[in-house]
Structure prediction request, 551 residues.
Amino acid sequence: MLEVQGVSKSFGGVKALSNIELRLEKDERLGLIGPNGSGKTTLLSIIAGTIGSDRGRVSFKGRDITSVSPHKRAKMGIGRTFQIPRPLTSMSVVDNVIIPLMFIRGLHRKELETKSVAMNILSQVGLSTKAEAKPKELTQLQLRKMELARALAGEPELLLLDEVLAGLTSGEADEVLDLLRVLNNDGIGIIMVEHIMRAVMTFSQRIVVLDFGVKIAEGSPSEVSTNPEVLKAYIGE
Amino acid sequence: MKRSRAPLYLVILLSVGVALPIFFKQPYFYFASYIVLEYIALSVAWNLLGGYGGYLNFGTSAFFGVGAYASAYIFNSLRLPVILAIPAGGAMAALLGVLIGYSTLRLRGVYFAIATLAATTLVQSIVLNTPALGSAVGLYIRLPPPPPPYGNLIELLFATLFGVTVVSIALSYWVENSWIGRGLMALRDDEEAAETMGVPTFRLKMFANVLSGFLMGLVGAFYPLYIAYMEPYSTFDLGISFNVFVMTLIGGTGTWQGPVIGGLILGTIQQAASVTITSQYNLAVVAAAMLLFAVLAPGGLKGIFSKFITSRAE
Prediction:
């Protein structure tokens, strides 16, 4: 469904990504891990289209989307969450969810209907009691849930999750993981960037490891966790 | 205001404005109100991109002036009917919006603001060096006779500008309550997040900029008839841009009521001050109000008003 071929990106003199290859099948769960600054978020942004790559190409559902704008990619079915939540601060939580309903799914006309769809999504992530609150009244955890709700509102076929579990207690993380499994069963492919190893190792079917912008390992969670290169990247020699 | 009743209010308001000069004769009232209406309409237009989208236009007088010179040239030099010249003025200003928008609205941040400021000087120097537009000497306008039932030209100008102002307010109300307004507010809050939620940010910014420019040009297109003699320094005066910016800020940005309140109150104070004190202190009044509000009420009059309403409701 998703294919990343030979993608490279530099910021000034820093090489953020070098010649990255990545494939994702429909309804696959992929974990993307690596130390801080290894290029995980940059790779997600290149797939979502908010950052352009210097070289290489990205295709989605058989179509080359390298030069397609981010809002069109969102309409094609790529949803994402941000590592640091990026709420629309002047709008209530439910209005934040209504934006993708309007612009990705084209529900502009029937206001009440759109709102009830948004409320359903909020209750799916356990945020329905905060629907009318402004984002600044939310806790970090609630903001992350809102990020997830907004991404789900676009009915994505590919979901890019940037540390969606950060700061959650293990009970809360399990709740979110259960929800993600349900979504995945419904046919949504997921790429998860995550630092919580227990979560990413149990959730993912396949793991890709980045270090200094280079893919250093790829395989099943058990293969990757015993890979000497990976251990070196994380722990040092 | 309920959506279903809005058209009714609109028609009533329009009829009042159009009928007023037929029954109420007081030339000074119309000369002064014309300027206030001008500022209300310009502020409403400014708010479309600046208020909802958060992209600041410091070149209101460029759009206004292009509309003014385009219409003056068409009916004064080409001798075509005024009724053609007015929309042509709007169209030329919209074109200026397209040019500035295409070159700067793909970028985020202050590029657009700087480009609008530069455009003012650029357009002004083009006019200064074009003999067909009167260069620095200016243009004397051949004023047409007013059609009945209006007794003189200013009455007619008041009535038509009143109509343009009401229609601008209605357009702004429509933008605010439609998906276009939602999208603009989303990109004002966070452009990257808005894009990932499917908001076509560039297209919405262009739309708001071109519509805003068109309305500013339309207002400007009436100006030659009002002023009778035009020259580039006062037509492209940065004071116009400054006034509009401050009036919208003081009224409250991002709502359709804000620029109406700001334009009405500050415009009226300015007109009153130029009669009772001196015309030299026009800008000082606005600048003082700006300072006062920046310190005491950053949310503008609209902010104070809604705070008052909510505290009463609680």
Notes: Chain B touches chain A at residues 178-179, 182-183, 185-186, 188-190, 192-202, 254 (CB under 8 Å). Residues 41 and 165 of chain B are 5 Å apart (CA to CA). The first strand of chain B starts at residue 139 and ends at 140. The first helix of chain B runs from residue 6 to 23.
